[in-house]
Amino acid sequence: MIQKDSPIPIYYQLQEQLKEMIENEELDPGTPLPSEREMAEKYEISRMTVRQAVTNLVNEGLLTRSKGRGTFVAEEKIEQTLMKLTSFSEDMRARGIEPGSKLISFEEVQADANTAKHLSIPPDTYVFQISRLRFGDGEPMALEVSYLVKDRLPEDTVNHLENSLYDYIEQQLGLAIDRARQTIEPSFATSREAELLTIDEGSPVLLLERTTFLSDNTVIEYVKSVYRGDRYKFIADMKRQR
Ligand code: GLP
């Protein structure tokens, strides 16, 4: 399969063959790749050459490398639209994936300057700081830290956070979520984020910040989310302005 007398570099031949196997689904998402040594022996090429091909595919996002576990065919990314204001649970269900949520911590804290600015409240106002790990079909996908103004919520809010926060706000509290402003930035997983999201420390992640408004223009939540970079891509449909 590898032509050593070809002018096409050997690493590139291997890379393209692996790519074809992934694209044709001969190698399914989650399949472990043979070790560098095994592939080098099989194709009778050097380990360095194998490493170069594999590294390129990792950089392209077709393979994922996990310290101590090996290299795997990457899972298909979830395409997250930027056109609608949806909840995590809605996003997952729309794809036939079962959403899950685990409350990591619930604390009453005084808003720092940044949180206060986003929530349009004076600094030091009491807010609920809610950390939740979000799952899709049991796999950790995102870590979300939400800030909600304490005075605007019932005391027993902590007991209603095992499922959808938006369902709680809309269905139980009867408030109308209307719009949000969201930013997305690249970042790297800290050791704590990596542990919770079951990825390597330093893996690429997407940092999302969302400020959500009710129809009366009050801010209901300010959320900082860390989404797995290997599982998400964001899409927007755009029309040329004339
Ligand atoms: C998304 C947003 C969060 C929001 C959450 C609500 O993940 N990034 O800002 O809090 O949805 O989702 P759910 O209603 O499933 O808790």
TrEMBL record:
This is Phosphonate metabolism transcriptional regulator PhnF. It comes from Alkalicoccus saliphilus. One of its GO terms (biological process) is negative regulation of DNA-templated transcription. Signal peptide: none annotated. SMART domains: HTH_GNTR, UTRA. InterPro entries: Bact_HTH_transcr_reg, Chorismate_lyase_/UTRA_dom_sf, Tscrpt_reg_HTH_GntR, UTRA, WH-like_DNA-bd_sf, WH_DNA-bd_sf. It holds the Pfam family GntR. Keywords: DNA-binding, Transcription, Transcription regulation. Residues 8-76 form the HTH gntR-type domain. It comes from the Bacteria. One of its GO terms (molecular function) is DNA binding.
